[in-house]
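Dear colleagues,

As part of the handover before I leave the project, I'm documenting each prediction I ran so the next person doesn't have to rerun anything. This entry is a single chain, and its sequence is reproduced below.
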Amino acid sequence: MTSVPLIHPVLLCGGSGTRLWPLSRKSYPKQFAKLMGDESLFQSAAHRMSGAGYAAPIIVTAEPFRFVVTEQLAAIEKAPAAVLIEPEGRNTAPAVLAAALWLERQNPDALMLVAPSDHVIPDAPAFRDAVAAAVPRALEGDLVTFGILPDRPETAYGYLQLAVDADPAAERPQSLSGFFEKPDKQRAAEMLASGNVLWNAGIFLFSVAAIIAAYRSCAPAMLRQVQTALDDASTDLGFTRLATGPWAEVEDISIDYAIMQKADNLTVMPFRKGWSDLGGWDAVWLESGPDATGNVCSRQATAIDCRDTLLRSETAGQEVVGIGLEDMIVVAMSDAVLVARKSDAQRVKEAVSVLKARGATQAVQLPRDYRPWGWYESLVIGGRFQVKRIVVKPGAALSLQSHHHRSEHWIVVEGTARVTVGDEVKLLTENQSVYIPLGAVHRMENPGKLPMVLIEVQTGSYLGEDDILRFDDVYNRG
């Protein structure tokens, strides 16, 4: 009896998440947020694609998220097989190819299960059963895509057209005849009525050999460029940084356009146990399970005489109250509030574009800035001063640095800090403080086993984050 090879999950962690603004932003997109429970979407995806028969995941992500990825995996007691860092986002086709070429070096006969890291699939065992049902076709050399049995004429998803004799409710892979991009309402209703379509989930199963052969046939230039980017990659702290030069030449294109719509060895595995790409706040409302009046409220939100409404407060101590609302979305954060009709959920990205044009930091930056050593948030900003709360993880350390334009005053409010100022190193405990003169070389570390919290008061002519000259950094930042 021939044994089934391990399935190697590939989780794609790019994207800016503009449709779920203000919770999801370029600095911290939706896959890392806890939208649907106690785990982030990324952590749920890693759990879903694990267990017996699964190898450790390969992660493809961007530079700002490399430590977020490893930290969130560590929190659920998982370790990646590799973390590939894209110099810039070039869509899914180059990302999938980079993972395939990396895996080819380790195991050229491997199976790859490729999935976005920001989808919701509530029934993880059913999903793994569907993957198992698709394995034989993948071993035969097919490129298997996963399609979702539709229950409404959705215009936010692409569609898969099945062959005439295919069964969209089958529990084994079916023949596929074509792809359709996001339709208008009339076309979506027509396709749903035909009973012969599935939603395109953007999830794929194939062998390393089959997908590389597909790139060799359909996108040979991309194959050469991505291979060079991997050959010239650098490694630090366990991350694999794809080379910037060759990667910049790669076409920005999805795997659907580059490969799937051209390949002749496609099959589709139907899945009917629940799925959402959480492509808008209307999807969050639906997947959150509205109550008898159609309302979904977070812990600090109250609905009075409301119907079919989503109310969320994302800031501790901030209450959101809706009165007499119908078909509304209200998402409140400390620095931005979204109010929109639920039917206009797909237009949220327009707001992000408008804010970007105005130069508003809220378009891309969360109030809380996550760093490899912890996080910080600005509490008060003035013309020549800024007050921050800084949280440093146990054992973590900020870089050894200096500033040209500002001085700093640190007050420890929780835990213990080891502080370096010039040649002096000392420990500070709660209620103790230290002054960092302009130009002084300094560093902050947490030698303890609990998070360390301090208040930083900056004063000076320029307070931007780019006023940092690093002399040493354990995280290899520039």
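The mean pLDDT is 94. The chain has eleven helices and 28 strands.

All the best with the project,
I.
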